[in-house]
Design goal:
The chain has 195 residues and is α/β, with parallel strands linked by helices. It has one domain: 2-Layer Sandwich (Nucleotidyltransferase, domain 5), CATH 3.30.420.10. 30% of the residues lie in helices and 23% in strands. The protein has a 5-stranded mixed beta sheet with strand order 3-2-1-4-5.
């Protein structure tokens, strides 16, 4: 039972130049190949106005990490030691900023709070990973989608009685080689949810 997270942001999608941030939490195996189902999803409007898409993505990763701390502690107290929690983002600039692999120029004005996440990465509480947007599960909660997309993604996030539970590669578009991202949810029992 290893905590894994995906974060995503929707830049300037709310009134008054605000952006939306989303984080999706699920339990997985150590090698991150088996999804044990979602346990928490956060979807917030970022309070401050973000100056760029990468800054909004960094804010989304920050908000996701803040919510992940109590979940990590709870899992550890239940007897499930946690390695550094992976946070997947689909923005390469946010990935570079949080891993300190890019040279800073315009990012000097990024909100001071977001440096907390860099400190937590250095303390090995989190690892930041880049993955393509079509494999990012938080994308569903951060943007407006067509009804067809909702119908397709609903199979992943909701349990429907008498319906085959698909693998992520069945539902996501453009996933030719998703070995590290495929979460086969057909094993184990699933909790019953109401619709």
């Amino acid at each position: 039972m290893i905590l894994c997270t995906h974060s995503d942001a929707s830049y300037l999608s709310e009134p008054k130049a605000k952006s939306r941030a989303a984080g999706h939490f699920f339990l997985s195996s150590i090698k991150n190949t088996q999804n044990n189902g979602p346990i928490h999803t956060v979807c917030n409007i970022i309070k401050n106005v973000m100056s760029s898409t990468p800054e909004a993505e960094i804010a989304a990763a920050f908000l996701t990490a803040k919510d992940a701390i109590p979940v990590r502690h709870t899992l550890e107290e239940m007897g499930h030691p946690q390695p550094p929690t992976p946070i997947h983002t689909d923005n390469s600039t946010a990935y570079g900023f949080l891993n300190e692999t890019i040279k800073q120029k315009r990012t000097k004005a990024i909100d001071m709070r977001f440096w907390w996440l860099i400190d937590r990465v250095k303390q090995k509480h989190f690892t930041i990973h880049w993955s393509p947007g079509d494999t990012n599960l938080a994308d569903y909660f951060s943007k407006h989608h067509s009804p067809a997309h909702h119908s397709k993604m609903r199979k992943i996030f909701l349990y429907t009685k008498n319906e085959k539970t698909p693998t992520y590669s069945d539902v996501l578009q453009g996933c030719h080689n998703t070995e590290s991202h495929v979460r086969n949810t057909t094993r184990g029992t699933k909790p019953k949810t109401t619709q």
